[in-house]
Structure formats: C-alpha cells, structure tokens
Design goal:
This protein is α+β, with helices and mostly antiparallel strands and 324 residues long. Helices cover 33% and strands 18% of the residues. The strands form two sheets. Strands 1, 4, 5, 6, 7, 8, 9 and 10 form an eight-stranded mixed beta sheet that branches. Strands 2-3 form a two-stranded antiparallel sheet.
C-alpha cells in the first residue's frame, strides 16, 4: 500500500523566495512608475498591497493608505544581528526623535520638493496708497494680508493653471473652478495650512475674519482634519518677519504658493522726485510642469495692480482714488 503513494518532492529552499519575488514583480507591474517611486520612498511593499484601480492596478491612494496603516512590531534584534552603535556626538548636542506633526511636515516637504519642478518669481509692490486709505478707516483697519488674499482670489480666475493640480497617475491636468485658499500659519509644533473654502465668494472683510479665526484655531491646536486639506492655492506670510524675498515650497499637490514679505519704508522715484514709499515684495513659487514664468508674472502683475490702486470697492467705495 505504501508504494501506491508518490514519493515526496525534494526540498527546494529557494522556491518560496522565487514565488515572493514573482508576486512582488507582478504587483509592481500593476503600478505606474510614479506610484512605484512613492511606494519605495514610503517603504510600502507593493507585493502586499491591494490595488483598487481598474484591473487591480495599485493607485497612489492605495500606497498612502498602506503607509498610514499600523505596522507590526519589529522583532528584537538577535545576538548575531548588527546593532548601530550610539552616535558619537559632542557633549553639547541633544537628539530628539522626529515625530508627530514635525515628522509629517518633513515628509510632505520632501515629497513636494521631489515632485514639483520649482521656480520662483519676485515682484516689488508699492502699497503706499492702500495702506494710507486702510489707516484712515477709523476703528475698521484691515491687515495687509486680508487685501492680498482678496486680490489673489480676484486674479486667479484669469490664470486657471495656478488653481490646478497634476494627476500623475492619469497624466491629466485638473482645473478647479472654486478657490480653496490655504493660509500658512506658524503654530507651536510647526507650519499649518488651514483652508478657507470657496474664498472667492467672500469679501475683503469676510476674508479677514476667516483668516483670523483659522489662525487662532491653528495656534490653539483646535483645527479639524477637514480644515487642513483640500486647498487649491496657498499664501504664506511671516508678517513683519517676512524678509526682503523668499522662495516658498509649493504645497503639493497644489501648483503655486505666494510668499508675502515684509513691508518697508524706502526711497523711490515718483516722477522726478525721490519720496518715501511703503514697499513690499511678493514671491510666487510655481510648479514649472504645469505653469510657465509668463503665467506667474502676469498673475502677480494683476495682483499688483489691484493692490497698488487700492481697488477694493467693498472697503473703500467705487472710486478709491489710489495711485501707485
């Protein structure tokens, strides 16, 4: 009776390894290069990742979901494994683990810098007329950021490439009708970007109120996850610490970010006379894959015209009378 059974197969130690490799190669083939690169950077095994795209294709969202999933605890190192020696730092150095919000910001900035092809364009603005009229609003003075935000949402519809994103998986540009304006805020743990939804529907004063409310909630740590995502264009301002010029990093997957620098009182020619003017530089960083320098320059020129002529009829009336 024993002879009726076939003999046992010889042991093949490498078979399981080859099968695992074949499974990983098959999964890799079901993902586009951009998704494979993302999986590599996030440490995600495509062979263990289920695809939700057409035909089981592994999409970017699948990789990001796998990266966010809790990872099993690593086995304690055995005696034969090499353990990294402690860092031989000078005694005055102190190491702190990169965790929480700071770690998330670091990863997002690395991805943004890796993905977007950045370039920055800078223009000088004369805000003298605008600030003089704003100062004259008894008890109702608005911050320069409120005027800048309003000028941005008025100028963006004429430059749709700057209120867009690039879908790398489908090789498609996504143009967005509504403007969801991100305002970068320095909080205790790092830079947060709360989003004002449908900002073009708000007047200058409403934008000022929304900006102040979100900034306060950000510093208090009370923002919800929904208030931190879905932006289509970002403004980053350091107020009086804004410096002369900046090169902000695009808030990927957005296409452009506007850096607001400090306002300074400097001499400039007006006609043939040298007079004191209140000047500020705007720095716009753009993803060159989506928009070119001409688009960025024309957009900033439109924002500049609105601000220099104090063209805010909802605040100053129909005839502000501002001159550059």
């Amino acid at each position: 009776p024993a002879a009726a059974h076939p003999p046992a197969m010889p042991a093949r130690p490498g078979l399981s390894h080859h099968r695992a490799a074949a499974s990983a190669n098959e999964a890799s083939a079901r993902a586009v290069p951009a998704v494979r690169e993302l999986a590599k950077r996030l440490g995600v095994d495509l062979g263990r990742t289920a695809g939700t795209g057409p035909g089981g294709r592994i999409m970017r969202r699948d990789v990001e979901e796998a990266a966010r999933a809790p990872q099993p605890l690593a086995m304690a190192p055995q005696s034969h494994q090499k353990v990294s020696p402690p860092a031989n730092d000078p005694p005055d150095w102190r190491r702190v683990p990169l965790r929480g919000l700071r770690r998330a910001i670091a990863r997002h900035m690395r991805e943004a810098r890796h993905k977007a092809a950045h370039f920055t364009y800078v223009e000088e603005l004369d805000l003298t007329a605008l600030l003089e009229q704003s100062d004259a609003l008894a008890g109702q003075r608005l911050s320069p950021l409120a005027f800048i935000a309003r000028a941005v949402v008025r100028a963006l519809p004429s430059h749709p490439a700057l209120n867009a994103s690039l879908d790398e998986e489908r090789d498609e540009l996504v143009y967005k009708q509504k403007i969801h304006l991100g305002i970068a805020v320095a909080a205790a743990d790092g830079l947060l970007v709360p989003v004002i939804r449908d900002a073009a529907a708000l007047g200058t004063r409403d934008l000022a109120l929304a900006t102040d409310a979100l900034s306060r909630r950000a510093r208090e740590g009370k923002l919800t996850p929904d208030e931190l995502r879905g932006g289509s264009f970002t403004i980053s301002s350091l107020g009086k610490l804004g410096g002369i010029v900046s090169t902000p990093i695009v808030n990927y997957p957005e296409v452009a970010i506007l850096g607001v620098n400090a306002i300074r009182k400097l001499p400039r020619f007006v006609g043939d006379r040298v007079v004191a003017r209140r000047l500020m530089n705007l720095s716009i960083s753009v993803d060159h894959r989506v928009a070119d320098g001409h688009i960025a320059a024309q957009f900033v020129a439109d924002v500049k015209t609105i601000l220099e002529t104090a063209d805010f009829p909802d605040v100053f009336g129909a005839d502000p009378g501002g001159t550059p």
